[in-house]
């Protein structure tokens, strides 16, 4: 076991504080990663504050990890020391079910093992990327292309793949009208990716405050959902609406914006239940759907796609001592558009 520095929440809703944790020895197929940067995802806050249910403490959040391979196990074939690598939201799965065999490890029948707030096959809790090092099986590690800066690449391991996967699955591309609901950490990546895929992109945001940013990121149109006229003007417009909002929505209102056979896809996960009038989907044969992250193959595909198109995330680099302040700013939507921790400051 190796002792490393980390930032952890000692209990639900408690401020994160500097501590040390134990990392397992490097096994046959493991890589030891020296973490350089770790993104702050809204999911980190949900889990550290038990918004999604009972959690494991102490908790070291962080599933947007970018770093460099420092050591490899004797059976490792994918990576060598010095390689630029990333780790996303999962570090293991059963590897045997139909989903795992199909490259959909995120939907493992037995449940994927989260990068943090989970229990590994060894019975020990997993600890995430707010730490200096992590040991991960090479099968759940991805390569970060040279064209991506590590700090801007870190948020792609969650925000990037969480938006890329559904946009690909629902065929966002030329001839398709795609709306991105919310212009935060996930939303700004969704705009970039949908634009790069060739779709006509509209941002739906509470206000027009970020309109200039949205247009620069690749949106063709930008509307305020606080304006009732938006829902009249855009009724029956979109093939796909991707919701990145983690607060309850009036789903019936937004479903009215879909064309027949359109899909409203949720990647934001509110802590509260939502309600729905089923006639909102029956009329127009519409789909109300959800999507998680992507599998390992698709995550690598996403990274290569972003590098090919020359973009990472829009970030604000912070020191570890600013994590608690950053959490409050995320909740206040005061970040453009992803906080990234400089792990050298832990």
TrEMBL record:
Cofactor(s) this protein requires: Zn(2+)
Pfam annotation, one family: ADH_zinc_N
Enoyl reductase (ER) domain: residues covered: 14-341
Record keyword Zinc present: yes
Reactions performed catalytically: a primary alcohol + NADP(+) = an aldehyde + NADPH + H(+)
InterPro entries, per the entry: ADH-like_C, ADH-like_N, ADH_Zn_CS, CAD-like, ER, GroES-like_sf, NAD(P)-bd_dom_sf
Enzyme Commission number(s) of this protein: 1.1.1.2
GO MF annotation: an example: alcohol dehydrogenase (NADP+) activity
Metal-binding as UniProt keyword: yes
Protein keywords: Metal-binding, Oxidoreductase, Zinc
Protein name stated in the entry: alcohol dehydrogenase (NADP(+))
Organism: Streptomyces apricus
């Amino acid at each position: 076991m190796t002792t490393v520095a980390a930032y952890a929440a000692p209990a639900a809703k408690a401020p994160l504080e500097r501590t040390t944790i134990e990392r397992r020895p490097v096994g046959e197929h493991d890589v030891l990663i020296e973490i350089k940067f770790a993104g702050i995802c809204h999911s980190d806050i949900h889990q550290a504050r038990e918004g999604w249910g009972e959690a494991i403490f102490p908790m070291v959040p962080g599933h947007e990890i970018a770093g460099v391979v420092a050591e490899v196990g004797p059976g490792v074939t994918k990576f060598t020391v010095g390689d630029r690598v990333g780790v996303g939201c999962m570090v293991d799965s059963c590897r045997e079910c139909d989903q795992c065999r199909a490259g959909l490890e995120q939907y493992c029948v037995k449940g994927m093992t989260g990068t943090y707030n989970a229990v590994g096959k060894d019975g020990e809790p997993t600890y995430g990327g707010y730490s200096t090092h992590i040991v991960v099986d090479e099968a759940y590690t991805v390569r970060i292309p040279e064209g991506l800066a590590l700090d801007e690449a870190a948020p792609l391991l969650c925000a990037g793949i969480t938006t890329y996967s559904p946009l690909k699955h629902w065929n966002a591309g030329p001839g398709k009208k795609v709306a991105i609901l919310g212009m935060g950490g996930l939303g700004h990546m969704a705009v970039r990716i949908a634009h790069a895929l060739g779709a006509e992109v509209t941002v739906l945001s509470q206000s027009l405050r970020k309109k200039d940013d949205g247009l620069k990121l690749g949106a063709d149109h930008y509307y305020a959902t606080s304006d009732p006229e938006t829902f009249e003007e855009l009724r029956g417009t979109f093939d796909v609406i991707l919701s990145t909002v983690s607060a309850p929505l009036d789903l019936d209102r937004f479903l009215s914006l879909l064309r027949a056979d359109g899909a409203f896809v949720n990647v934001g996960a509110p802590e509260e239940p939502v309600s729905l009038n089923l006639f909102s989907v029956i009329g127009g044969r519409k789909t109300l759907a959800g999507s998680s992250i992507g599998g390992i193959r698709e995550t690598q595909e996403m990274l290569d796609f972003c590098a090919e198109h020359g973009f990472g995330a829009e970030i604000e680099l912070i020191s570890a001592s600013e994590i608690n302040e950053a959490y409050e700013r995320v909740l206040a939507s005061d970040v453009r558009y992803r906080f990234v921790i400089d792990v050298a400051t832990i």
